[in-house]
Amino acid sequence: MSKEWEDLAESLSVEIKREIAESYFNEKNYLEEEWKNYKDNLLKSLQKKEERVILNICRIIVLLGSEEFWEEFEKLTGLSLRPFYDSQILNSTEIKKRLFKKLKAPFGFTSKTRFVKLFINIYQNLEIAIKEFLKELTEVKNYYLQLKKETQNFYHRFNLPAILNFFRKLEGISSDIGPIEPVEQTYQALAEILKIDIPPSPENKVEKIVPIPKFSEISSEIIKLAKKAYEKHQKEAKEIIDLVYKKT
Predict the structure, then answer these.
(1) Domain map of the chain by residue range?
(2) d(Cα 119, Cα 125) in Å, to the nearest integer?
(3) In tens digits, what is the pLDDT along the chain, a chain of 248 residues?
């Protein structure tokens, strides 16, 4: 091969390397920014909605007060309260304050009426919170799957060890670098270092958050359940009512 052809081949090789490197890092940077947005914004927004669901579930647990009513609530709504239960929720005064003190106090002439109305308000808040959480969870999952697919396609297009090995062979580099196997291991190690970190799928972190019936569909059953809980746990129910109505 003449000197001119060697120079041309080398020039083309350098230009191809430059274009591949630019395309690789431009797309890699884009994907990394998208994953950062996913973690910093979408997941945090989803987490806030999930926290709202859990707060209202914890309030329901406290208001019902015992397992027999939790089970009745599950039969009515399809939502199990057990996965969210912790003994501290019922036993800690400080936790109860945080759960109830900032709630709007419903009007009622008696403690029982206030308790039932409070229960209804919390149920309706839970209904909305679950709906919003599940809607956003679906959107975030779809975004995640799309971004994961784009990332996988990126690796199919830019198989870094194969690209580096191709240029090594193109330039006739062999024994100067060393045996083929260690060189390929080096390329693979480099690919691992440059690999984009893909977080776990945004699966529902809580055991089961499922849609619950609209209050209008089971209003009489919900009111009966709240009244039974009040009758059995009057002392604790009145303490909760006091927390809601005493804002100091």
Answers:
(1) 8-160+190-245
(2) 10
(3) 555 545 545 555 566 667 766 777 788 889 999 999 999 999 999 999 999 999 999 999 999 999 999 999 999 999 999 988 888 888 888 899 889 888 888 888 899 999 999 999 999 999 999 999 999 999 999 999 999 999 888 887 766 555 555 555 555 544 444 555 555 555 455 455 457 778 888 875 555 899 999 999 999 999 999 999 999 999 999 999 988 877 54
Cβ proximity of 35 and 119 under 8 Å: no
CA 108 from centre of chain = 39
Amino acid at 144: Y
Among all chains, which residue has been given the structure tokens 């015992």? 66
CB 35 within 8 A of CB 199: yes
